[in-house]
Design goal:
1963 residues; alpha+beta; 6-stranded antiparallel beta sheet; 40 strands; extended; 6-stranded antiparallel beta barrel
Length: 1963
């Protein structure tokens, strides 16, 4: 069996193909993974993937491509580093990191960056391939690497990754270089990224595409040039392009003939008065419109001109082509000035050459030197582009530039007619001829772009004897051919006759070089026109060269030629690096020919232009040293001055590039071996004269040239020594020493009198460091160091701060430190003391800090990290002793200095701070134990040591500020932190030894702890936020520095002993912040400190309230900042030992005597953390959702109830308020802000500034809150609540007599009443939501809530919204309660279904005639309880009649707070479950349908319906269902003998069911009567059908005649106004019988409704899952139906009115058979649409119809038939609405729809739920009524009147919605109309009685009475005399019969109202 063998060389490889690893121990591999190989066996490797080193396995060898690698720490813990190019390594790792982030960009929908990064990644991969192939040249490799690193940096910057420090494209290891050098690299890369260096050289790229014109047909010549309109001269030569007859380039294949680069434009040329000018010349006939003739001669003729400004190109898109307009001049003679006229907009002189003529040109401005362009625009140069040069040299002249161009501009000519009647057509032809008279071939160029020609023809101006051409030609004649060459111009007349011949009539010429060797001078020359004939022989140039050529140099006696009118004006300009036009320069260079002129020539040298000198630099220098060698005594001083002049000339920026030329000359051409003696002598003479000289300027010029003078001295001495074998060495050394003595003496002088020696000293010091390198060529390092030390040491020490010498001193020190002499360790030890002395002086005075920082950087960058040399250690010690303290002080000063307002100074301050910091870090990094010991020993007193420690700790805190380094400098931050923690470990010993016990110093220890905490909490050390690769690298290099510092904190804390009390509770917050860092080891170290704190605090004060308060306050702020996690909460609460000897905090506390309070604290803190963590997680989400709001509510309540932290409570109130506003939950926002409002009183107590509130009184703040809340109630359409606050605020204004605001408040209140009546409000749906599973946040976990839905939101939409908020949740598909497996599951389960609200405001809802706008509010507001019904079958299901076994499971949910409130959802506090039997279910269904029918009939009678369709559908549904077997099904189920025998206990219920059936039949009969009256004509057949089916239904039920109790029932449908019949109130006791009437306990007692749908009996029978309504056994809770897929009822699926209200039968006037008089009076009443219908607008009844009150004794004896006995007529009343018209005795404490203002007893918060007053009969006995204080938000009543459901529905869904009928738990008999009436006085007397006894007058009554003092109060309709009725009466409502004989419940049996936890519910 083969063994696994460890590999020796096969250590590293890349996966070539993916490997699934399905075999045993197989390691799955993905293509591209890198693997480290450990062992090998028979074609298999064993190893691991580098990105996951924990998973090891085997894989095939042939899947791996091996790569060379370097092995570190060989053995078990070896690491492998590939030995490839570092750029390749970086590229590979970076691309891997980018890959993951790139995919995330797609997920985040950042498409632009996604695509750009994709392109860059592909580009990098392509470049990587090129590098790996290895076929690139060295230069190309460099370019590719530069390109790669630029792309890598771009990508890192875009993705927010770290800046990579590089040197020569390779990443640097921060441990391998000095910190100062690392900082410099980072700074360089950062600055390079931020501020690109400005470019001084620019180039213009021009590409001519075509000329578009309609009248072409001739070839064209196009000339481009750059023109300066300010100087009116061209700046460049011309670019020349030939176009064919179509306007396209003539040579399209040669791109260099179409494209050019105008090079060497300076920054000054990019201004608005510089233009690109285009001249277009046509080649053809003289006239553009001439007909073709036999003449074949072609002329150059003007065509057009175009102009574009260069500044337009600076902003234009470079990729766009420009279409230049082409203009033609109006007068041909002005052609040469056309471009000027266009620029100056002289419109009269030019016009467009054609409406569609344009020149298509690509123009682009490029920046940088030409070599840079060649690299960046390689395609441009390889494809071909011509170079168009600038006229003259560029701003910077380079030594290698070779140029010899003569430019000649043919300006103008002046010619005679020549005997012709008209002017000539003159053409000039130019030739260049050599010394022999031969034409120079190809040396006449019209411009770049086209090759040079032998001749040049100007364009021809028609009949013009004074033509102006201004045409520029270039003559690039070689230097050696210049002498003897000349240019000849021939003039010809171009005939326009048939022959078209050109006749020669004259010529001019000009020589290019004068006889003395000077080139033709620049400028304008007027040339003589020599006449000649056509056949003149000009080939023999010798014949005419003897003639004069220019009128300027004619002899004075030659007047004949001077007087001639004919002339040619040309302008010449020479641009040559070899030829000169200066005579003085020639005299100097030819000094041997004229020795007598030497002195004069040397003097004139200073006047010669610098460009002439640098052109002949080497020749000039040879001349100077030649003169010095031959005549040193005579000319030494002048030669020296000339040499100084030339040296200083090279300091000019224009000529600075010639310094290398001089250096080359010194090294290679200089031959003055004897010159050193004269140079030293003259230099010393000048230095010695400095002190006495009155004028220092010339001496300063001499000293400026010190560097090159020394170069000449040293080189001369070397040449001499080489030639003589080292003779005169001592003499030379002696001379040098004397020279330096003179220098030191002059440097030591201080300013005396008016002689500015300081300036001269500064000049020398600036040049002195450049001499060091030269001295080293002849002297040893130590000798030169001694020179420098003595020279610098001679400087005066005391000087003024503003002295310029101080800055120069530092500059000199800087250059010294950067020089070779300082880099050498031998000389450094000599120079270091003097450098440190000067540096320390400047740092102490805080002067020139930038320079000081630079010097320190240079010094410390020379120290090697692991330098074991003793000298290195001494250097560190010397630097520490000299500058460490002052460096700390400087950093503190600079960092804390207030920054100036200007943004320009900030970078400089940042630079200097960063440099000082890097210096400090570098110094600390080099310090070892010995250095720290020496440092601490130097402190002679504890105070000094204390100050030092405070300084260094403060500086460290500054260093770890986030703004200290740019965000992406992670490398620098890690190095900084590593140095800080190392230093702190050294200094902590000093802290322990010197500042504990009696010497304890709180300030030092506090500073130490603060530093440690800030250190641990730095973002740059939170490894959890790093990518995996970055975390791995950081841990490998530095470890987790947070844990190291945490252990140090713990160790130091343990040493404190009793001094710990000084840090309690101050350090609780900081230490808590440390424990929130998600690092388990760090937490385990730090958490025991809290036990220690609690223990010490318990010892000191007997409790740890301080610890608790601080802990809670800090937790909130820290967790809201994003710190802490779920693990931390578990750690705090866990009892598992987590850290060796340190168990968890709870475990430790359990051992203490104070364990109970300790455990309580931990439990509180843990619960707070749960909520805070949930809150933070929710707040991370984007949009406001229920989760955020619910979480905030949970936290808010926790602060209020458990912690009693008022300030935090108020803060979270406002956070919740902001969330509601953002989500547009205005009602909830109002309730939320009301929490804060309730904490305030109406007092003048001053309040401090808090949150966004200014400093103000409590009254003002409460007023502002009220107004804000009212505004939000208005926006949320919750006007009833707003009215209460308006009243309260109005009371305050009234008490202060602020009538202006009182008026506004009353108007606002009135407007809210209007809005209630006029505006539509939607009724929201309610949904029960269960959150199950451990993955939900704490405040939701395994809890159920009821949520108030948004407007128009139905169940499906709500479910989708919840699933969007919890995307990982699973929706449960059933409504059953989940089991424990769901509760404990590691998942999220959502259970959602709709529930029906059970309103508490029954008093409003039960009143007849209350408008639906009002009732709709109370149906869905202030709801505590909700209901859900689930139908099911018990026992065997009867297929024929399923109602026999159909039960209903009814669930009632009670909330902790009512909805709406401070949230849209509240938790369920209690759930109750009851079962409703099939019989009870049937009773409820029929009751609901009867109630619906009553309501629709009433609405139809009172004309509240727009049309009769709802009633028609309802009647049809019930009657049709009956025909199909509706009620018969119930008969079959419950009226059969078997059922009655088996269920004897249901006898009463069966009777009740029978009563309801008869009642329904009676209602249907009356409904058909009403229907007949209102049914439209087209629906009459349907009505007839309904009547026929109704008779069938009656017969099927066996009804021949209604029973007495049904017949005795009055007709409860009002006649006329909806106000009629609203004023009856339930009587609790009957005066005759004295029997107490109470509600029944049976579920049958309460008619319930199905809120959504009702179906026919037949459909109900077929639907097993239908939702049946029912009533619970609890008498104080009445439930609404829960919607379900199908809801059973006796009716079919026709819908009822959405606002169906319960109308109690209170009058018999609703009969259709009325007398005419009564009909007329009813029709005279206003319809609801014609007049308001509310308590504010009473219904003025006709006096004849005013109700008459009952006699007192007959109040409870309603009679519809005088023949029926009184007991038979006793039925129950229905509650009715309150009205202004009712007598107060009938009011009985019932409030209006919007309740009145409560009695003014202070804050409304003090109001409790009102007890409904018990109404008694009107007996002579006086019974006082309790005060009435209802409110819109408190509608739940207690006492003897209970809650009851209401009816509601929806037409739109097609499903009717039944609600509960108006039922009272304890209602008396009904006040029915009687035949007897009381006089009005009885009512008035009763009214007055109650008013006197009631302390709180009912609202509006008194106001109404004051306005109408004599108005009679009408009788309630229920007490009025009913008219005779023929229609059968409708039976009473169900509860009016069944409660007659029941006993009322005692008051103490009624449930007590739930205490209201907050004041808002009282509003």
């Amino acid at each position: 069996m083969n063994m696994w063998i460890p590999t020796e060389h096969e250590k590293y490889g890349v996966v070539l193909a993916s490997f699934r690893g399905t075999l045993q121990h197989g390691l799955p591999l993905e293509i591209g993974d890198t693997v480290q190989i450990l062992e090998k066996c028979e074609g298999w490797y064993r190893g691991f993937i580098l990105k996951n080193p924990n998973a090891k396995g085997i894989f095939p060898c042939n899947y791996i491509h091996l790569k060379n690698a370097q092995i570190k720490n060989k053995g078990q813990f070896e690491t492998v580093v590939p030995t490839e190019d570092s750029v390749i390594t970086e590229m590979t790792s970076t691309l891997r990191d980018w890959g993951a982030m790139w995919k995330q960009l797609f997920v985040k929908n950042e498409g632009d960056l996604f695509h750009r990064l994709w392109h860059v990644m592909n580009e990098i991969l392509d470049l990587r391939r090129q590098v790996l192939v290895g076929h690139l040249t060295h230069d190309r490799m460099r370019d590719v690497k530069q390109h790669i690193t630029a792309r890598l940096d771009w990508g890192n910057e875009q993705l927010g990754l770290d800046l990579v420090p590089r040197r020569e494209f390779s990443m640097v290891d921060p441990d391998e270089i000095s910190v100062t050098e690392l900082y410099r690299l980072m700074e360089h890369r950062h600055r390079k990224k931020e501020t690109p260096t400005p470019v001084s050289t620019h180039h213009m790229f021009v590409h001519l595409k075509s000329l578009m014109s309609s009248n072409l047909g001739e070839e064209l010549e196009v000339f481009f040039f750059i023109y300066d309109s300010r100087e009116s001269k061209p700046l460049s030569e011309r670019f020349f392009v030939k176009l064919n007859k179509n306007g396209l380039p003539k040579f399209p294949e040669k791109t260099e003939r179409q494209c050019t680069l105008f090079v060497d434009l300076g920054s000054g040329d990019l201004r608005k008065d510089v233009y690109i000018v285009v001249h277009i010349i046509r080649i053809g006939r003289m006239g553009a419109g001439e007909k073709k003739n036999t003449c074949n001669v072609q002329y150059r003729r003007p065509f057009g001109c175009a102009v574009v400004s260069i500044t337009d190109l600076l902003t234009a898109d470079s990729k766009e082509d420009h279409l230049l307009k082409v203009y033609a001049c109006n007068t041909e003679s002005d052609w040469s000035q056309t471009h000027d006229n266009i620029i100056k907009k002289v419109n009269s002189r030019y016009n467009l050459s054609g409406s569609n003529t344009g020149l298509a040109v690509a123009l682009q401005l490029l920046h940088g030197d030409i070599e840079q362009l060649r690299r960046e625009y390689m395609v441009l140069f390889t494809r071909g582009v011509s170079i168009t040069k600038k006229l003259g040299f560029s701003d910077v002249i380079m030594p290698g530039d070779m140029r010899n161009d003569l430019y000649i501009t043919l300006e103008k000519g002046e010619f005679e007619k020549g005997g012709k009647s008209v002017a000539r057509n003159v053409e000039v032809t130019a030739y260049a001829l050599d010394v022999d008279g031969q034409i120079l071939k190809g040396f006449v160029a019209a411009g770049s772009g086209e090759p040079g020609g032998d001749e040049y023809h100007t364009f021809v101006l028609y009949h013009n004897n004074s033509p102006r051409w201004a045409e520029l030609i270039k003559l690039p004649i070689p230097v050696d051919m210049f002498r003897g060459s000349h240019v000849r111009f021939e003039f010809r007349h171009c005939s326009t006759k048939d022959k078209g011949e050109k006749k020669l009539f004259g010529f001019s010429f000009i020589p290019l070089m004068q006889e003395d060797g000077l080139t033709l001078p620049d400028g304008t020359h007027e040339l003589i026109v020599h006449k000649c004939e056509e056949n003149a022989n000009l080939q023999d140039c010798a014949r005419y060269l003897k003639l004069p050529f220019s009128k300027s140099n004619l002899p004075g006696n030659n007047q004949t030629v001077k007087g001639t009118k004919e002339s040619l004006w040309i302008t010449s300009f020479l641009c040559s690096t070899k030829l000169t036009q200066n005579g003085d320069m020639l005299d100097l260079l030819k000094w041997r020919a004229h020795p007598e002129r030497i002195s004069d020539s040397l003097s004139k040298l200073k006047e010669i232009d610098g460009s002439e000198i640098v052109k002949f630099l080497q020749d000039t220098l040879d001349t100077l040293f030649g003169i010095l060698d031959e005549s040193s005594q005579k000319y030494a001083l002048k030669v020296f001055d000339s040499l100084v002049h030339i040296i200083n000339l090279l300091q000019d920026s224009k000529f600075q590039h010639f310094k290398p030329v001089m250096d080359t000359y010194i090294e290679g051409h200089f031959a003055g071996a004897l010159s050193y003696r004269d140079l030293i002598k003259v230099l010393k003479w000048y230095v010695d004269r400095i002190i006495e000289a009155d004028r220092q300027e010339h001496i300063q010029q001499v000293l400026k040239a010190t560097e090159y003078i020394f170069k000449y001295i040293i080189q001369s001495r070397r040449l001499f020594a080489l030639a003589t074998g080292g003779q005169s060495e001592e003499e030379f050394r002696c001379c040098m020493h004397e020279l330096f003595m003179s220098i030191r003496f002059f440097l030591s002088q201080e300013n005396k009198g008016s002689r500015p020696i300081t300036q001269t000293q500064a000049v020398f010091l600036q040049q002195f460091p450049a001499v060091y390198g030269e001295l080293l060529k002849l002297f040893t390092v130590r000798e030169v160091a001694a020179f420098v030390r003595e020279t610098l040491g001679s400087l005066p020490t005391a000087s003024q701060a503003d002295c310029p010498l101080e800055a120069v001193k530092l500059h000199c020190i800087t250059k010294t430190v950067e020089s070779q002499i300082y880099i050498n360790p031998e000389s450094r030890c000599i120079l270091l003391p003097v450098v440190l002395r000067l540096l320390q002086a400047h740092l102490q005075e805080q002067r020139d800090l930038v320079m000081c920082a630079h010097i320190l950087t240079c010094m410390l960058s020379l120290l090697k990290k692991d330098d074991a040399e003793p000298t290195a250690s001494e250097e560190v010690d010397l630097i520490v002793e000299s500058v460490l303290a002052v460096l700390l002080r400087t950093i503190l000063e600079v960092a804390n200095r207030p920054q100036p307002a200007g943004p320009t100074l900030r970078p400089q301050v940042q630079d200097v701070t960063g440099e000082f910091v890097s210096c400090l870090l570098a110094l600390l990094r080099h310090m070892k134990d010995k250095h720290y010991q020496q440092l601490l020993q130097r402190f002679t007193s504890k105070d000094d040591l204390r100050d030092f420690l405070l300084h260094i700790f403060t500086v460290f805190r500054i260093l770890i500020r986030p703004e200290m380094f740019p965000k992406d400098w992670a490398v620098m931050r890690l190095v900084t932190n590593n140095i800080i923690i190392t230093t702190v470990l050294y200094l902590s010993d000093a802290l322990r030894k010197n500042f504990l016990g009696d010497k304890f110093d709180f300030k030092v220890w506090d500073s130490y702890f603060c530093l440690s905490v800030i250190f641990i909490n730095q973002p740059c050390l939170q490894l959890e936020t790093f990518s995996a690769s970055k975390r791995k690298k950081t841990l490998e290099k530095y470890g987790d520095m947070r844990v190291m510092m945490g252990c140090e904190i713990f160790s130091m804390w343990q040493n404190l002993g009793e001094h710990k009390l000084n840090f309690i509770p101050a350090m609780i917050g900081p230490f808590l912040e440390v424990t929130l860092v998600p690092q388990p080891d760090l937490r385990n170290v730090m958490i025991p400190i809290f036990h220690d704190m609690m223990d010490w605090e318990q010892r000191r004060s007997g409790n740890f309230k301080q610890v608790e308060a601080k802990l809670i306050d800090k937790l909130d702020s820290l967790l809201s900042e994003g710190k802490g996690d779920e693990t931390y909460r578990e750690l705090f609460n866990s009892i598992i030992p987590l850290f060796g000897p340190y168990p968890s905090l709870l475990k430790k506390i359990e051992r203490e005597t104070w364990r109970e309070s300790g455990i309580s604290l931990i439990a509180t803190v843990t619960r707070l953390m749960e909520r805070l963590l949930d809150y933070r997680d929710c707040m991370k989400l984007g949009e406001v959702d229920g989760k955020k709001i619910g979480c905030t509510v949970s936290l808010l309540n926790f602060y209020k109830t458990e912690l009693n932290k008022e300030e935090m409570y108020i803060r979270y109130i406002h956070k919740l308020y902001d969330l509601h506003l953002k989500a547009q939950n205005y009602t909830e926002a109002s309730y939320t802000l009301l929490l804060y409002d309730e904490l305030l009183e109406w007092s003048e107590r001053p309040l401090r500034e808090f949150l966004s509130y200014p400093m103000q009184s409590e009254w003002q703040r409460k007023e502002g809150l009220h107004l804000t809340i009212i505004q939000n109630f208005d926006r949320g359409k919750c006007w009833e609540n707003g009215i209460i606050l308006c009243r309260e605020l109005a009371d305050q204004y009234e008490s202060y007599y602020d009538y202006r605001n009182l008026s506004k408040m009353r108007m606002m209140e009135a407007s809210y009443y209007d809005k209630i009546m006029d505006q539509q409000r939607l009724e929201p749906e309610f949904f029960r939501v269960g959150f199950y599973g451990k993955k939900f946040p704490f405040f939701l976990r395994n809890k159920e809530f009821v949520c108030r839905g948004h407007d128009y939101e139905r169940l499906e939409a709500f479910q989708q919204r919840m699933l969007n908020e919890f995307p990982h949740a699973i929706a449960m598909q059933h409504a059953n309660q989940p089991d424990q497996t769901i509760y404990q599951a590691e998942a999220q389960y959502l259970q959602i279904y709709a529930v029906t609200p059970i309103p508490d405001s029954q008093d409003v809802l039960q009143r007849d005639g209350v408008p639906d706008n009002i009732k709709s509010f109370y149906k869905v507001n202030h709801i505590w309880r909700f209901r859900y019904d689930r139908p099911f079958h018990k026992g065997t299901k009867d297929k024929e009649n399923e109602f026999k076994s159909l039960w209903v499971e009814r669930t009632t949910l009670t909330l902790v707070q009512s909805l709406p409130g401070i949230s849209r959802w509240f938790e369920v506090e209690r759930r109750e479950l009851v079962e409703v039997s099939p019989l009870e279910n049937a009773i409820e269904v029929i009751e609901n349908k009867n109630l619906q029918l009553r309501t629709l009939i009433t609405q139809c009678q009172t004309r509240q319906m727009q049309n009769i369709n709802p009633l028609t559908m309802c009647l049809n549904g019930v009657i049709d269902a009956a025909v199909n077997g509706g009620l018969a099904r119930y008969q079959e189920a419950f009226f059969v003998k078997d059922y009655i025998m088996n269920h004897p206990e249901d006898g009463d219920k069966i009777g009740r069911l029978r009563e309801l059936m008869f009642e329904q039949a009676h209602i249907l009969e009356f409904g058909l009567t009403v229907h007949e009256k209102f049914v439209p004509q087209d629906m009459r057949p349907l009505h007839k059908k309904l009547v026929d089916q109704f008779h069938l239904m009656k017969s099927s039920l066996g009804i021949q005649e209604f029973p007495a109790y049904v017949r005795a029932s009055p007709i409860h449908f009002t006649n006329g106004s909806p106000r009629a019949g609203r004023n009856s109130a339930p009587n609790i006791m009957s005066p005759e019988g004295g029997a107490r009437v109470v509600s029944r306990r049976s579920p049958l007692s309460y008619p319930a409704v199905n809120r959504y749908s009702s179906s026919s009996l037949s459909s109900q029978a077929s639907n097993e899952v239908s939702n049946i309504t029912g009533q619970s056994e609890s008498s104080d809770e009445v439930f609404n139906m829960q919607p379900s897929p199908s809801t059973s009822s006796l009716s079919s699926n026709h819908s009822a009115s959405p606002n169906v209200t319960s109308s109690a039968p209170s009058s018999a006037r609703g009969s259709p058979q009325l007398s005419d008089k009564q009909k007329h009076s009813r029709e005279n009443c206003l319809s609801p649409r014609e007049r308001p219908c509310s308590a504010i607008y009473p219904n003025p009844l006709d006096p004849t119809q005013r109700p008459v009150p009952h006699p007192a004794g007959d109040a409870s004896l309603p009679r519809s038939d005088p023949n029926i006995s009184t007991p038979d007529k006793v039925v129950k009343p229905a509650p009715s609405s309150w009205s202004l018209d009712m007598p107060l005795s009938d009011f009985n404490g019932k409030g209006p729809p919007v309740p009145p203002r409560p009695a003014h007893t202070g804050s409304p918060a003090k109001t409790t739920r009102s007890q409904s007053p018990v109404m008694t009969s009107r007996s002579p006995q006086k019974i006082s009524a309790p005060p009435f204080t209802p409110s819109p938000t408190e509608c739940q009543t207690t006492g003897l009147v209970s809650n009851s459901p209401v009816l509601s529905g929806s037409y739109s869904s097609g499903i009717s919605s039944l609600s509960r009928c108006s039922v009272s738990e304890a209602s008396g008999t009904e006040n029915t109309p009687t035949d007897h009436a009381l006089p009005n006085s009885a009512s008035s007397g009763s009214d007055e009685l109650i008013r006197r006894e009631n302390k709180t007058p009912p609202p509006y009554s008194s106001i109404h009475e004051r306005n109408n003092p004599r108005r009679q109060v009408p009788l309630p309709p229920s007490l009025s005399i009913p008219p005779s009725i023929d229609a059968p009466p409708i039976p009473p409502k169900p509860h009016q019969i069944r409660r007659q004989n029941t006993e009322p419940r005692r008051p103490d049996q009624f449930p007590r109202p739930r205490p209201i936890p907050r004041k808002v519910s009282q509003l």
